[in-house]
Amino acid sequence: MLDARERGANYLVRHHYFRWPEALPWLIxxxxxxxxxxxxxxxxxxxxMIMFALSLxxxxxxxxxxxxxHAAFFGVGAYTVALASLRLGWSEPISGxxxxxxxxxxxxAVVGWFILRYRGLTLLMLTIAFAAMLQESGNLRSxxxxxxxxxxxxxxxxxxxxxxxxxxxHTNYWYVLTVLAVIFYFVRRIVYSPFxxxxxxIRENVRRMHAIGSPVHRRLVTVYAISAAIAGVAxxxxxxxxxxxxxxxxxxxxxAKVLVMLILGGTGRLYGPFLGAAVYMILExxxxxxxxxxxxxxxxxxxxxxxxFARRGLLGxxxxxxxxxxxxxxxxxxxxxxxxxxxxxSALGSSAFDGAVIGFLAGFAVNLKEADLMTSYVTGxxxxxxxxxxxxxxxxxxxxxxxxxxxxxxxxxxxxx
Amino acid sequence: MPHFAIVAVSILFDGMAYAMFLFITSVGLSVTxxxxxxxxxxxxxxxxxxxxxxxxLTRSYGVGFVPSLIFASVLIGLISARLERRLYRRxxxxxDLEQVLLTIGLAFMAIATATYFYGPIxxxxxLPDWLEGDVNLGFRAFPSYRAFLIAIGVVLIAVLWYAxxxxxxxxxIRAAVDNRRMAESVGINVDRxxxxxxxxxxxxxxxxxxLAIQLFGLTPSFAVLYLVLFLIVVAVGGLxxxxxxxxxxxxxxxxxxxxxxxxxxxxxxxIYAITAIVLLYKPTGFFGRE
Lengths: 417, 290
Description:
- The complex is a heterodimer of chains A (417) and B (290).
- By secondary structure, chain A is mainly alpha-helical.
- Chain A contains 19 helices and no strands.
- Chain A folds into 2 domains: 305 residues, ABC transporter involved in vitamin B12 uptake, BtuC (Orthogonal Bundle); 74 residues, no CATH class.
- In chain A, helix 9 crosses helix 11 and helix 12 packs parallel to helix 15.
- With 290 residues, chain B is mostly helical.
- A two-stranded antiparallel sheet of chain B has the order 1-2.
- In chain B, strand 1 and strand 2 form a beta hairpin.
């Protein structure tokens, strides 16, 4: 039996080598260029978001730092490139993103040094406050930053002196993809290294890490700075892709959006950001054009369902499905009998009541939309009221019944663990 | 009166009105987070919902402003109690991140629903005659609505203080915030207590939302726009502390009003700066527990 140290080393060595399925996302990215040649500006945006989500995964998924202000570093990178091009006449793209990344990384190091002493709500508020302060300061000096109207019409030199930016975003796509590949390699090395393992340790049990003498604060600040640098590179690429930047890059909305993308794909996994960002951007592109309101409802619903049923994101679901189809889980699932407990009835009743209330209100709302409110709901249209209420009750009870049968336990009970 | 004093009085008055709004809306969030450690980012959505209920009642059904406020608070309180029992309860043992995500998701759904029914245009409420115009206090005339807001705030502070400090239930809540396990072992039903405080807190948020319509106008994005502000008040004041929320609301309300008067370009910079400074020195806020 190997001792813990050897097992740890074996784990790292085993994951360190590239496995062939890892080529899949890259092949898909390359294929997209040939399959969708006229969606390449959008493709570039997706790749940039993947990079941004990857940077967040480093601190959230691996080190466990919850932040709603990561857009701050994205913005630092974006504005570095914009201001360098506009005010200093420095429009070479590659050095631009390097400088953007470095500045964002420095900002991350400084800010992180102060705020990473805290946890929980305090840390969350400090991250929000920092991003908001950057945004407001930018607005203060809107003579430099262009304020919320932004800096339009930025010009950048051809890549490596030869590849000119074209209207279709083709050059840009390969450029961003290459940068993403380089950064990804770097992130992968970090994650499958003793440093990366220390981060996981900090996430799982920070007290123990302190107890074994691990320099927790130093590790956290380091990874925060690295993550900030990567976010900065993503921001710099954003400016170069759009040739335009506004203070909206610092928005709370952006920080929240990238968090949702990451959760969707699955935190703590290297390819979670790829899946999450791609799926989110594609869905958003389609649905928000259809109806922005429904898109927002859909995202909200997705989040709620994800937290309740898919805590580890799409990749987590995929792993569960694979476990279900192979291995020991399959046997226990197949042999599970459908159990109907006595208090399942009260759970159904509860759901029926909720469903009835929602149904009643839905009917009321339909009334609102139709007749612009003045017709009395219950007395004026009793049939509709009854149908909506009973329908709601039936749907509520039905959903709960299905859930009970699948999971084999009552719904009002708290799930174990 | 010298010009400086006039300006100072104006700032103080407007700042206090703003502070009362912040206090009324945030006190529920503070007690919820202090009592159960549950991060409820849907709190802003409760406020928004309360606001829209008031709008509908006053505009479409001709109910008076004050009765609408009361009805909205009670309604939202009941709905939130139901929501707590069925949904939030499952997540008490979850990580902060999951609670954040769930409640943000609920907030988005609420915003989308409100947009669907009410549209994105800012709404207003018809006010009764005695709330329009000014109230003359001799040396200056003050807008009646703001004076009303301050008056309600003071009354609520007194009521809440009395409830917290002098009643049995208040003692139980304080006990549960201090040391939940001990409170449970002494026989206090913390779960039921929490549902009650959650309902009252959300009801107060709805009241705050209804009161805010006249100050800021009501749009569906009210839920997230002002959420950050409520979180700031709660974090700076200290979780679970009535005193703290009040002090934080006053500080933020008055300094923000003053800041916007003196340096309008700086916008919300002052608020965020205060937050960062306070939290860096006192991470648990003014009166929070370690």
